[in-house]
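Task card 7
Instruction: Convert sequence to structure tokens.
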Amino acid sequence: MARIINRDPSLVSQFYTKHKGAAFVTALTHVLTAVQTAGITDTTELATIAAQHTTRRITVAGTKARVRTKAVLITPTGTGTGRAGAQAIASGSARLRPLIAEAARQGLRMAFTVRMAKTSYLHASGSRTDSPGIRRDVIQRADHTEERSYGSATTGGFDAADFAHRVDQAGGDVTAAVHLWLVENGRIRLDSHITHLEIRTWRPR
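Output:
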């Protein structure tokens, strides 16, 4: 659907989770008609149909709204970084989803750093069982939280495509996807709460 309307997949997911996408109803209605009545399934052809019926949003002042651009920056070497603070965490770290999706598209590797209460972690600070191979000290904060990193270029990190799939399964919620990975791999308690999250990407050698 994202390819048909030429928009980011994260926006499409918000059609269902946040009731956005009113501007695309007409376009998608014509696309659905083309599929059902004419049997058209070619994505490029459907995108052409959608484009003919897609209009720009109108601001309160009555002018056409500017086109929102992707806040994703991945260098030619595959290096990219995205961070989410407390407010973004509460909304599922949506700003990080395009970064992970683009990293998956390019076949990149990724790592992440999480910050949460010290009592949330199941292993002691600096434990090699928790994050083996990381040559980065655990960062302890004055508010009794810790930052711990998982994955690195040295250890090979994680397949961005695998994490993109996890995010999709979590309905686009990056925070939930990372939290589930940490729980499944015995790193944190089930009731833990991530307060900050950072995603890093790079191109495998």
